[in-house]
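From the shared-data thread, chain only:
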Amino acid sequence: MFREFKKYSGFISNSLKTLFAYRFGAVVWIIFPIVFMMIQYFLWTGIFESAGGSLYSIKLQQYLTYIGIGYITIRLTACGREGMISTELKNGNVAVALTKPYDYITMNFAQHLGQRLAFAIQSIPMIVLIVIIAQIPLQTLPNFGFYILSLLFAFAINFLFSIFLGSIAFWIVNVWGFFLLRGGLRMLFSGETIAIALFFKIAEDGSTIQNFPLQSLNSAGVKSVFHILGVVAYCLPFQAMYNTPSAIYSGMFAGNEEILLHLALQAGWIVFFLIINKLLWKRALDRVTIFGG
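Structure, as tokens:
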């Protein structure tokens, strides 16, 4: 198996070289997360201080850790191979790639792995600054181990979901709108905008912040909406990409049992996408349509 994958090492090194060649882009991608982290820092600090320093039994430091680890997690696991597949479909390069003695999906994985390795190296200054800004504490060895495992699962889910979207591009000529929809759903249901745990807390307790302009959160109808949002989040893979590893490290899960349950859910998504991608990819290859080539 190692010998088989070794022939794809060139794709990994080429991806590394390509990203390091664009130094300005690397600097931009280091600065952007720090800027957004600062915005989140002041926003949530204000919200938590309005709530007396604790929001639904979640401490400010715990939530800042959740946000900081979330930014690091995204940097290490995000995948956009669907855009590359869509582009290659339109310009006809996918036909050329399929004639080469490489497995197309494995080739994409090698390229993605190279990109993430490059991003990880470039992100070291960003990670250090985020750790300082959010004052992210060290975790116990077992909890850190759970986080690393969850991070690897999130990496796999991101890639498999990206291949899933790329496979759909074989049936949809213009996938740009579809990708935008994916981005919106991810922002809402991944835990990036608001931790999934808060959906259920608001659904249960409403607003606990005095003099806060969203007292309508206390109405039964609004509570029901947040409960539905929480349930939908667990019916989609996005929370397994972001919320689970971030919540594990920040200690938002109540004990090892809840952690193991979420790890099992991540593993379930991996199995699901492995199966669905195999079926989709087989059908996609049967009806390859080349646009512009």
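Residues 2-286 form one domain.
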